[in-house]
Design goal:
Layout lengths: L4 E4 L4 H6 L5 E6 L4 H16 L5 E6 L4 H6 L1
Parallel strand pairs: 1-3, 2-3
């Protein structure tokens, strides 16, 4: 994964995404999800292209059900 993509969890989602002062993109994904794997390279490309302008994050919905259900 790109160094420009931040993994977030139930524990830090509010601080890292909702509390972000700028634009934040969240990739809600799961290991078993084929379309998620297809989109992953595009998310990483966007994170690299817009580094410093947009916060790009990933949230594993299986490991973080509270945030996934609320979003």
């Amino acid at each position: 994964m790109s160094e420009n993509v931040l993994n977030v969890s139930d524990g830090d989602f509010t601080e890292e995404v909702e509390g972000s002062s700028g634009l934040a993109i969240v990739d809600f994904w799961a290991e078993w999800c084929g379309p998620c794997r297809m989109v992953a390279p595009i998310v990483e490309q966007l994170a690299t292209e817009y580094a410093g302008q947009v916060k790009v994050t990933k949230l594993d919905v299986d490991a973080n059900p509270r945030t996934a259900a609320a979003s």
